[in-house]
Design goal:
Elements lengths: L3 H11 L12 H5 L2 H13 L5 H5 L9 H5 L7 H14 L5 H6 L6 H12 L6 H8 L4 H14 L5 H7 L5 H14 L5 H7 L5 H14 L5 H7 L5 H14 L5 H8 L4 H14 L5 H10 L3 H14 L5 H10 L3 H17 L4 H8 L11 H15 L5 H7 L5 H11 L8 H7 L5 H14 L5 H7 L5 H14 L5 H5 L7 E2 L9 E2 H18 L1
Organism: Dictyobacter halimunensis
InterPro entries: ARM-like (IPR011989), ARM-type_fold (IPR016024), PBS_lyase_HEAT (IPR004155)
Protein name: HEAT repeat domain-containing protein
């Protein structure tokens, strides 16, 4: 275990003098004579002692626009300050680091956290100023510095953050624990275990969460003990972390806790049991799926049964499909049966018989969830008997069902799916057009190239991005000029695809061009 007391002495000795910590005026003073103070702060920041060899190792540039941009940090309007922070994060001139750190004490929490995230984007050149801020007398500076150091991801900050777990201010301790979880260093395990006994609830929560991220077996027993914490929030984080650690020794204690747990706690236990994938949980999960008084608990229990994946639950779920009146719960059951059918292919024929009728269900207002789930499940089976029913759902009155049907058809091994999928590219709803484009890209049929090329002009950025990606899979070098024309398309792509978060159309274009170019070079 790291010697925190010894490290503290060394850390303090190594830090810059207090003069290097940005000192801030009070909120009232900051808003008086803004321009005079801003100019003074900028002069100090622009002449700060950042080593030239350190700057040379980074990709940042010294931009003549910087002084004019920095003045915006002192603007009285919160939105203007935020926009300035975002601009500085893009500019990445290292002289902006200390002025950004000065905003750690901004009276608007959104502004101070935005400044912390912006400083983290500067990389290693921000390490020294952030460590100085972590040693500041200001609680706000220490809190935001811990936040930024976690985002920065540099393990050289571990010792300083371990010291911060003993900070007199509880919010700083909690933020230091969160940052240590992000850094993933084994030296934090024992200090974080000790924090499970902190007086401050949020510190215990963050410590429990961080221990899950560190994936160290030493945390299993302390987290099991944390299941007795007086605060539900702490217990929930402990349950989540135990699931991440993946030790099945925790299954029995979680099952014992299930019957007396509160609503949200039960949901977390059920999700954990699904992730741990232990057959001990099958009967208790099935009982919750069929009989728990809380609708959400029943839904999550059905989903967990799909992850555990035991064929013994197929028949009970098939029966429950016909007896429940809850369309949303029924959609969960159908999804789980689809997962089980993929695992136990000998049940596919009977599952087809059970699920096909739900593909055209119109019994309730939420029945479109049932139809969409049935389309997804039947697509998973890849059985030709589902082809015509799925094709019919491309004309469903609900766009959600049409989109899921398009996605499901990809797994049906029949060339007849291509013309109907091409027709989805002219659907009135962008979600259907996007899903049709994605499906055509996966099918690998060159008949889709021209229709997908036309879709590059679509008014919706997500649709354009899906068409671009599909052409990346299908296209030839002749499609490159069309893709190149979208290289300046900065439209943000907001979809449920995990690998597309915070990406733009031009990012997808770059990947598609690279894919086509590499394929051309290899051919």
């Amino acid at each position: 275990m790291i010697d925190i007391e010894h490290s503290l002495d060394q850390f303090i000795a190594d830090l810059n003098s207090e003069d290097d910590v940005v000192q801030l005026p009070t909120n009232g003073e900051r808003r008086e004579n803004e321009c005079e103070r801003a100019i003074g702060s900028l002069a100090a920041a622009l002449n700060s002692d950042i080593a030239s060899d350190q700057l040379a190792s980074e990709t940042y540039i010294n931009d003549d626009r910087l002084p004019d941009i920095l003045i915006g940090l002192y603007h009285p309007r919160r939105q203007h300050r935020l926009e300035t922070i975002y601009a500085l994060a893009e500019l990445r001139d290292a002289r902006a680091i200390k002025p950004l750190i000065s905003l750690f004490e901004d009276e608007g929490g959104e502004v101070s956290l935005a400044a912390a995230h912006a400083v983290a984007t500067f990389g290693s050149v921000a390490m020294e100023p952030l460590l100085a801020a972590l040693a500041s007398k200001s609680v706000d500076q220490r809190y935001c510095a811990a936040e930024a150091l976690g985002e920065l991801g540099d393990k050289r900050a571990v010792v300083a953050l371990l010291i911060a777990t003993r900070d007199e201010e509880p919010t700083v301790r909690a933020q230091a624990a969160e940052a240590l979880g992000k850094l993933g260093d084994y030296r934090a395990v024992e200090p974080l275990i000790a924090m499970l006994h902190d007086d401050y609830t949020d510190a215990r929560c963050k410590a429990a969460e961080a221990l899950g991220l560190l994936c160290d077996a030493r945390a299993v027993t302390p987290l099991l003990l944390a299941l007795n914490d007086k605060k539900e929030r702490v217990r929930i984080e402990a349950i989540h972390s135990l699931a991440l650690l993946g030790d099945r020794v925790v299954v029995a204690p979680l099952l014992a806790l299930l019957s007396d747990s509160l609503y949200y706690e039960r949901i977390e236990i059920i999700e954990a049991l699904g992730a741990l994938n232990d057959e001990q949980a099958i009967e208790p999960l099935l009982q919750r799926a069929l009989h728990d008084k809380e609708k959400r608990v029943r839904q999550e229990s059905v989903a967990a049964l799909g992850h555990v994946g035991d064929e013994r639950v197929i028949e009970p779920l098939k029966v429950a499909l016909t007896t429940t009146s809850d369309s949303f719960l029924r959609s969960y059951m159908i999804k789980t049966l689809g997962m089980l059918g993929c695992r136990y292919v000998e049940h596919i024929s009977c599952l087809l018989v059970a699920l096909l009728p739900w593909l055209s269900d119109t019994s309730q207002g939420l029945s479109y969830y049932v139809r969409a789930a049935a389309a997804t499940a039947l697509g998973r089976f890849g059985d030709i008997r589902a082809l015509e029913p799925l094709l019919a759902r491309l004309d469903d009155e609900n766009y959600y069902v049409r989109a899921h049907a398009a996605r499901a058809l990809v797994d049906i091994p029949d060339c007849r799916i291509i013309p109907p999928l091409i027709r989805t590219l002219s659907d009135a709803h962008p979600s259907v057009r996007a899903m049709g484009a994605e499906a055509l890209g996966k099918c690998g049929d060159r008949r889709a190239i021209d229709p997908l090329s036309e879709l590059l002009k679509d008014e919706n950025g997500v649709v354009r991005a899906h068409a671009v990606e599909a052409l990346g899979f299908l296209g030839t070098v002749q499609t490159l000029p069309l893709l190149i024309s979208l290289q300046s398309d900065n439209t943000l792509v907001a979809t449920n695809k995990p690998d597309w978060q915070c990406r733009t159309v031009k990012d997808v274009v770059s990947e598609a061009i690279e894919r086509i170019t590499m394929r051309g070079a290899l051919s």
